[in-house]
Design a protein that fits this description.
- It is built from three helices and five strands; from the N terminus they run ααβββββα.
- Helix 1 runs parallel beside helix 3.
- The chain has a five-stranded antiparallel β-sheet with strand order 1-2-5-4-3.
- The termini are far apart.
- The protein has one domain: Thrombin, subunit H.
- A hairpin with a 3-residue loop joins strand 1 and strand 2.
- About 6% of the residues have low confidence.
């Protein structure tokens, strides 16, 4: 049994919602794309309904990696285990939940190792983290190379 049942929905949302600009080879792929889009819309609507009934914690700065997460937590101490809930999308009230073990403390910042996920969850998480990193690098390059 999955300890965090909503993680299935949340990890589904980590995948790209559209395939814009990708040529499909046959009608079967087009039909699958339309079905995926409809399912994603239903999931987003579910998230909006849940969002209206649930308050979220305050936003905090953090650094994410495929296996680690860093955030400000003055009370955390190495060796402690925390349950973290990450709301990755503003429009979706379904968090990713995972246990993390605090491995290091530097000032107010703590570093934690994510307790191993299932193979499918880990794969989706790694792809999502990589895409976020790639977008951040592209945005940084765009801002530094644009004329002022």
């Amino acid at each position: 049994m999955n300890e965090f049942p909503l993680n299935n929905i949340a990890y589904t949302l980590l995948e790209e919602t559209g395939h814009h600009g990708i040529a499909r080879e046959n009608d079967f792929d087009s039909e699958i794309q339309r079905l995926e889009h409809k399912i994603n819309l239903v999931i987003q609507m579910l998230g909006q309904m849940m969002q209206s009934k649930q308050s979220r914690p305050d936003k905090v700065l953090l650094r994410l990696g495929a296996e680690t997460i860093d955030w400000q937590n003055p009370q955390a101490q190495p060796g402690e285990r925390y349950l973290v809930s990450l709301y990755l999308y503003e429009s979706v009230a379904v968090p990713i939940q995972a246990y993390v073990d605090i491995i290091e403390k530097q000032g107010e910042w703590c570093s934690a190792r994510i307790v191993p996920l299932s193979t499918d969850e880990q794969s989706a998480w790694e792809r999502w983290v990589f895409r976020q990193h790639r977008r951040q690098v592209a945005n940084t390059r765009a801002h530094t190379s644009s004329p002022r």
